[in-house]
Amino acid sequence: MKTIIAAYSQNQSGIVFLLLLIYLLFTNFWPVPALYLTWLIFDWDTPEKGGRSSSWVRNWLIWNHFRDYFPIQLVKTHNLLPSHNYIVGVHPHGILCVGAFCNFVTRSTGFCEKFPGIRPFLATLAGNFRLPVFREYLMSGGLCPVTRRAIGHLISRNGTGNAVAIVVGGAAESLSCKPGLTTIILNKRKGFVRMALQHGAHLVPAFSFGENDLFQQVVFEEGTCMKSFQNRFQKLLGFAPCFFYGRGFTSVHSQGFLPFPRPITTVIGEPVTVPKIEQPTCGTVDAYHAMYVKALLKLFNDHKVQYGLSETAELQIL
User: Does the keyword ATP-binding apply (predicted)?
Assistant: First the structure.
């Protein structure tokens, strides 16, 4: 119980939900929050143990409509063998990670048919799993916290044939997301490579072409007050406030917060074979990180023209 309280003390949105449940304890509905809080205590560590996936949530028919709105498609370039585990690096983050969600959480784009024997998972902010009720929905879709413990469990204690997708650039990358700009944050993101080495999980690059075209965002220059505010907010809550707009509810020509209906194509690249080294040196991590970057650049350059970019378009890696 102390662990739960300590976790909520670091998560402001979680505190709001927890206080709401406590408030309901003093109303006529008290049995519901009482039972749920009891469940929460006993189920607290489940997200860190890989969560739990429900096929019926992943197969909801609404996801087909979600896919077709943009539309979104998944492209396979190489096989993933069920005898191995994988860490899939997804780029770019965009505003809402629409491509990653649709391809690795829902079954609407045919991931399991294209990669038979592979179970996909998507890692997201650990703070999301401290939100009562919402955490149950996240886990039912195969999402897990982007923590060493949760990812390590899936790629070492859950058998083989597991593919954990990580949006490597994270919240910081969303701040540089805008149409016509292909910038990702990767140079100093090496933790996922170290984990792959420690567990012998192969690294797979994936790129979602069109992810940055779903919204228009106001990008603030470094050194401005608004940029400083975004950076401080991100350090405090783990995500960055983006100032963006999309289309309205009535027309694609109106402004609102719906994403623009623009195609997203997520291309899964060639796996980088990774040996199991329980205590890899920094040099080894750097070497396999460089191999991953090379594979990602090849994936981007091989498919950029086919999926809407110019021949001269470059992938900027920060």
Answer: no
Structure tokens at 143: 């999402």
Asked if 264 and 72 touch (Cβ cutoff 8 Å), the reply is yes
Is-contact 107 150, C-beta < 8 A?
no
Distance between CA atoms of residues 91 and 173, nearest Å: 9
- Identify the burial level of 211 via C-beta atoms within 10 angstroms of its C-beta, where 0-12 means exposed, 13-18 middle and 19 or more buried: buried
CA distances from 11 to 15, 31, 36 (A): 6, 25, 19
d(CA 120, CA 122): 7
Burial of 117 (0-12, 13-18, 19+ CB in 10 A): exposed
Q: Which tens digits make up the pLDDT trace of 266-316?
A: 999 999 999 999 999 999 999 999 999 999 999 999 999 999 999 999 999
Task: Kindly report the length of the chain.
Answer: 318
* Residues whose CB falls within 8 Å of the CB of residue 20, separated by 6 or more in sequence, listed in order: none
CA-wise closest residue to 109 among 53, 162, 161, 70: 70
Given a contact cutoff of 8 angstroms between Cβ atoms, the answer to whether 264 and 99 are in contact is yes
**CA 143 and chain centroid, separation:** 8
Q: Are 258 and 248 in contact (CB under 8 A)?
A: yes
Angle between helices 282-303 and 191-199 (to 10 degrees): 110
